């Protein structure tokens, strides 16, 4: 796992773009923009979670970033129709997977399913981005307890030695796909609660070093504030990652000293 000093910038492409040709064009342009960047970027400066079918093709042309999946099956090898398991993604060129995105949860993913996905992905040594976030907030702050319980339940099958490849993304559902992101302050409070929950489950050392990301209406204008003031180590970005100019600006801004 990277040291926490490097921001992790992940684009979540969802069901875009429409064709493999468009996806290849995007990654080639992004590589060129990273290569010629005036701001010094690390050897690998971006992550893109793409439709699974594109992964082998994109991983061939992606040299300065990582290509991954938006979801994975937690059912092991066998007779299951329409599911892709971590070892298959890895052997097809994926570097990482997202698990527990709110749009996947909304389609019926249960906590039990999520716990199997997380265990299988981490057992396969796959870098795993686990999303968690409240649907709404209450003044009393009960949502914080619900988030902590979600983390505990979802990670219940993961043994301590497997936590190294886990990254947490705080994604408040109310901020995803909308106009209003969380404020950096709102984000900061949750980051602390998540680290506390992780300390209880996986120990204080892991809780100190785990990367925590923020996602939900991240734009070129607000990206940096989450890193500078929101206490996060990176971002999970939907719409703004689907625009080559905006995504490359975010990558550069977030890596600028
Ligand atoms: P958004 O999506 O940046 O378009 O709000 C974030 C996400 O779904 O991860």
Which keywords apply here?
257 residues; alpha/beta; TIM Barrel; 8-stranded parallel beta barrel; 8 strands; globular; binds 2-phosphoglycolic acid
Molecular structure report:
α6 crosses α7 (184-202). This protein has one domain (8-255): Aldolase class I (TIM Barrel), CATH 3.20.20. α1 (20-35) links the parallel β1 (8-12) and β2. Strands 1-2-3-4-5-6-7-8 form an eight-stranded parallel barrel, surrounded by five helices. It is built from ten helices and eight strands. The protein has 257 residues and is of the alpha/beta class. It binds 2-phosphoglycolic acid.
| Biggest pleated-sheet summary | 8 strands, parallel, barrel
What ligand molecules are bound, each kind once? 2-phosphoglycolic acid
Q: Main sheet: which strands, in order across?
A: 1-2-3-4-5-6-7-8
The number of distinct structural domains comes to: 1
Low-confidence stretches at least 5 residues in length (pLDDT < 50)?
none
Mean pLDDT: 96
The helix content, as a percent range, equals 40-55%
CATH T-level fold name: TIM Barrel
Distance between the termini: 21 Å
Helix/strand structural class: alpha/beta
CATH class call: Alpha Beta
Element pattern in H and E: EHEHEHEHHEHEHHEHEH
Rg to the nearest angstrom?
Answer: 17 Å
Apparent shape: globular
CATH superfamily: Aldolase class I
CATH-scheme architecture: Alpha-Beta Barrel
SS element count, helices? 10
Quaternary structure classification:
single chain
